[in-house]
Design a protein that fits this description.
With 564 residues, this protein is of the alpha+beta class. It has four domains: 256 residues; 73 residues, no CATH class; 106 residues, no CATH class; 87 residues, Immunoglobulin-like (Sandwich). Helices cover 20% and strands 26% of the residues. It is built from twelve helices and 26 strands. The strands form eight sheets. The chain has a five-stranded mixed β-sheet with strand order 3-4-5-6-7. A hairpin with a 2-residue loop joins strand 1 and strand 2. The longest helix is centred in the N-terminal third of the chain and has 17 residues.
Length: 564
């Protein structure tokens, strides 16, 4: 039976600034030929069993327990985030051994008799509770992640995390990150590589596991800082979340996809959750593709106004017109339930919320500056949660408003936290003032999407599709969709007047992969498709590609990711 709220029985211990709600117990398997060699024991959420040597301090053992709990239960609600991972780690009796040092006489004897799953080991000198997860000081996050990934993710989701060459999303992404597929460490890595593992004792599978670790902790922000960047540059170049997002598109998508339930928040060494689940949850109601859960728990989820995942939810009580609430900030009353393979919040009642945690101030009332291309006589309700949105309803049904013809939709594009005024753009069904650091995001030049004034944007949004040349009067290229893609992707471009158009797709080495000779074509909007086939008729390898569209003397480039 899965009951992780036994934490209530634990004693809350403080070491410095760390609060850990675990206690060290006697070894439950003193007669086991391997586990019986170690004295100290902590059960972490029925997932990881920590066995430590008597010479390792209680503080360090409990630090390992706290880090493990934070990685498994990243939202710290007392429940392991991924039910499938919980089942796998629990069933296989996953162990995290902590030894005195690398020279310990116990290590060989331990593993000669070990019959469980252990993805890594820790030594006393590698653990620093005052620097949780800090590279070079505390190896706890790395080794615990290796344990969870090896004993959990690799086994449960081999299509995502398999370690053999060409076996998974992970290995294909790693081959891109290393500039090619190298079964063993090459004499030198290509210049375009950003992951170049330099330990010849680490085979391909080992390198894949290390790569997964680098990606997860980079996304957490644990590698930021000049000193750390310099210290890891020989192996890993993407030391900040921004560099990771901009460069390693494939793994960034995997790591940040809420359905994959990988930890997003860096552990801080404090773990002491409350055991009473909230009876009221507030956030944006979203819907997406059915996940691995394959039941009602996978159809809907809640996120906060910043896009952070809160919880899967369910409509098991038969709420009518559930779609009415999609993409709105809502209040949901219910209780935690267990579905076939995952956990969700069972919906008892749901209402549109007039509040949000951090409502924003807008330059103008959203409905006063918005239009909806999908409905002529819809009712607009202003939404101030996390942005300035005009939500449109038709007969009490929320409408998904596409951008008017000729308008580039900037929804979801992050221009940075700078205060520079970029102009007015179309975001979430309305014209909005946008500030940021630059018009270029992920190699895409969005400058053509901006208007110099609110009136210009509003006027443009009301023009018909026949007036595209009046609307923009600029050459523009939109990001391909989907991205990453397999096997087909599409992109849209607009030319304001008759002219010559040439489209070339390049690989990372600057070689032309595919050419589309359009020649002299009339002004207007065009959509092209690419089926991931090169000029020779072969399917291209997985990796990053660049599409260069030239119109007369102008050119624009977008970055694309292909995944087999």
């Amino acid at each position: 039976m899965r009951n992780l709220f036994i934490l209530l029985t634990y004693i809350s211990l403080s070491f410095g600034q760390n609060e850990v709600c675990f206690t060290i117990e006697e070894n439950p398997q003193p007669n086991d030929p391997a586990l019986g060699l170690l004295d100290k024991y902590v059960n972490v959420l029925d997932c990881i069993h920590i066995y430590g040597a008597s010479s390792v301090s209680d503080e360090k053992i409990l630090h390992v327990a706290s880090i493990a709990a934070e990685l498994l239960d990243n939202d710290e609600d007392g429940v392991v985030d991924d039910q499938n991972i919980f089942n796998e780690l629990n069933t296989n009796y996953t162990v995290m051994p902590v030894f005195h040092s690398e020279n310990s006489n116990l290590i060989d004897q331990f593993f000669d008799n070990f019959n469980y799953c252990a993805g890594a080991i820790l030594f006393r000198q590698e653990i620093d509770p005052s620097q949780p997860g800090q590279w070079g000081d505390d190896a706890t996050v790395e080794e615990v992640l290796h344990t969870i990934n090896t004993c959990g993710h690799v086994e449960v989701y081999p299509q995502l995390y398999g370690l053999e060459p060409n076996s998974s999303y992970l290995t294909q992404a790693m081959d891109v990150a290393r500039g090619g597929q190298f079964i063993t460490m090459p004499s030198s890595y290509p210049d375009e590589a950003w992951y170049h593992y330099d330990d010849w004792t680490c085979d391909y599978e080992c390198m894949a596991m290390e790569y997964l670790y680098w990606c997860i902790v980079t996304n957490m922000g644990l590698l930021s800082g000049d000193q750390i960047c310099q210290g890891i540059a020989n192996e890993w170049e993407l030391c900040t979340p921004q560099l990771f997002e901009e460069t390693d598109i494939l793994m960034h998508d995997l790591v940040t996809d809420i359905q994959n339930l990988l930890p997003q928040n860096a552990p801080d060494g404090n773990y002491c959750p409350q055991n009473n689940p909230d009876e009221l949850m507030i956030g944006y109601l979203r819907t997406g593709l059915v996940s691995f859960c394959m039941d009602n728990c996978s159809q809907y989820y809640l996120e906060d106004e910043y896009g952070n995942y809160i919880s899967n939810i369910s409509n098991l009580n038969g709420i009518q017109n559930f779609e009415y609430y999609i993409n709105r900030f809502v209040e949901i009353e219910g209780e935690t339930v267990q579905c076939v393979e995952c956990e969700a919040f069972n919906v008892i009642s749901i209402n549109i919320s007039n509040d949000c945690e951090n409502p924003v101030s807008c330059f103008a009332e959203p409905c006063a500056t918005s239009t909806c291309a999908s409905v002529e006589n819809g009712t607009c309700i202003s939404n101030y949660c996390g942005g300035c949105y005009g939500d449109y309803y038709d007969n009490n049904e929320l409408i998904v408003c596409g951008a008017p013809d000729g308008i580039i939709d900037l929804s979801g594009v992050d221009f940075g936290l700078c205060d520079m005024a970029l102009g007015v753009g179309w975001v979430n069904n309305s014209c909005q003032y946008i500030s940021g650091c630059d018009w270029i995001v992920d190699g895409v030049d969005y400058s053509d999407a901006f208007f110099s004034s609110m009136d210009e944007c509003i006027n443009a949004s009301t023009l018909s599709s026949e007036s595209d040349d009046v609307l923009l009067n600029k050459f523009s290229v939109q990001q391909n969709y989907p991205n990453p893609f397999n096997p087909i992707t599409k992109l849209k471009y607009f030319i304001p007047e008759d002219g010559n158009v040439e489209i070339n797709i390049y690989d990372l080495n600057g070689k032309i992969v595919k050419s589309f000779q359009k020649g002299y074509i009339p002004a207007g909007s065009y959509t092209m498709s690419w089926d991931s086939v090169n000029d020779r008729g072969d399917i291209i390898p997985s990796g990053i590609y660049f599409c260069l569209i030239t119109f007369n003397d102008l050119s624009k480039t977008i970055k694309m990711a292909f995944l087999k």
